[in-house]
């Protein structure tokens, strides 16, 4: 089992003499005979981590695993998917148990242990980021999206990658057009949702439901200016109706009085601007999308009638 060392990427041993991960062919090129290599393995000085791939240190870190996957897969190999994205501060991406590596179609390497191999005719450029060699980030996002069966997971991935400026929607759209069609539906939907203004998976889900519900047109992540300066960004805004729908984040801790107070103050401030505010939890939308649709339709209808009545008075 490897040890998690999240902030350290070291490629050489502590004496700076040998790479921490070395292939048999490189060790031979450095003058190590077969017998010398076997001796180091037998005495525990080196460890075999993949076929003909050895760790010369005493602790297999996460970065050693990534580097070992690349050494094993060959000089043209690049990381992609979760392995390429896990250390780039995307909340929706965790370090995977198995590392996905892209290699040219002509490569002879085969999957082994925790290394997955994907041959491709469309080898990407390497991303200009520190650490192990990885595919450009739009390709890495697209490759991971194609493996995620849940639309909400792909929405979260795309929204976080675009908002975090790891890649652009245009780059993801180009990957969608160039990549495989099979399994691409979620990526296509997520790109459409983020293009329309969704900043999170719950917002994208809510927007998709509302667009199918034939409610009046709305703005997503719209700016509402305050008279004395400053502004709010609201999840959904019906500007003519002065109506705001907020999707309360699952990241908020509702057993925390401070969080409740902040949410309450925000809603009070919006209401003081003459806006009517409805809030819904993501879990409630997922559990009963039909009820969510009916609630919003009824709320907007009531708001319309209220404003008409005011005009008549």
Explain what the structure shows.
Helices cover 42% and strands 16% of the residues. The protein has 12 helices and 10 strands. Strand 2 (47-50) and strand 3 form a beta hairpin. It is α+β, with helices and mostly antiparallel strands. The model is unreliable at 251-256 (pLDDT under 50).
Q: What structural category characterises the helix and strand content?
A: alpha+beta
Helix residue percentage: 40-55%
Shape: elongated
- Measured distance between first and last alpha carbons: 74 Å
- Write the H/E string, N to C: EHHEEHEHEEHHHHHEEEHEHH
Average pLDDT number: 89
Kindly report the spatial arrangement of strands forming the biggest sheet: 7-8-9-10
Strand share of the residues?
15-25%
Oligomer: single chain
The total beta strand count reads: 10
Radius of gyration using CA atoms only: 26 Å
Low-confidence residue ranges: 251-256
Number of separate helices = 12
The major pleated sheet works out as: 4 strands, mixed
């Amino acid at each position: 089992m490897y040890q998690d060392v999240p902030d350290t990427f070291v490629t050489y041993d502590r004496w700076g003499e040998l790479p921490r991960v070395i292939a048999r062919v490189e060790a031979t090129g450095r003058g190590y005979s077969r017998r010398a290599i076997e001796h180091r393995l037998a005495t525990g000085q080196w460890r075999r981590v993949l076929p003909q791939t050895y760790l010369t240190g005493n602790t297999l870190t996460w970065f050693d695993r990534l580097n070992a996957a690349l050494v094993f897969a060959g000089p043209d190999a690049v990381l992609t998917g979760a392995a390429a994205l896990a250390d780039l501060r995307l909340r929706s991406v965790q370090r995977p148990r198995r590392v996905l590596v892209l290699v040219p179609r002509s490569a002879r390497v085969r999957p082994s242990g925790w290394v997955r191999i994907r041959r491709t005719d469309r080898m990407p450029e390497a991303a200009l980021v520190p650490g192990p060699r990885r595919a450009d980030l739009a390709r890495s996002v697209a490759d991971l999206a194609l493996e995620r069966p849940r639309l909400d997971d792909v929405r979260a991935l795309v929204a976080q990658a675009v908002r975090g400026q790891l890649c652009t929607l245009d780059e993801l759209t180009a990957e969608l057009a160039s990549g495989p069609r099979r399994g691409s539906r979620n990526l296509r939907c997520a790109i459409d949702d983020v293009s329309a203004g969704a900043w999170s998976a719950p917002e994208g889900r809510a927007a998709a439901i509302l667009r199918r519900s034939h409610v009046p047109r709305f703005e997503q992540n719209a700016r509402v200016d305050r008279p004395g300066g400053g502004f709010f960004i609201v999840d959904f805004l019906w500007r003519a109706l002065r109506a705001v729908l907020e999707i309360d984040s699952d990241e908020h801790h509702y057993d925390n009085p401070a969080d409740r107070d902040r949410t309450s103050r925000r809603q009070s401030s919006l209401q003081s601007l003459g806006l009517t505010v409805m809030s819904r939890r993501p879990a409630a939308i997922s559990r009963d999308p039909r009820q969510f649709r009916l609630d919003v339709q009824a709320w907007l209808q009531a708001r319309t009638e209220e404003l008409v009545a005011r005009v008549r008075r």
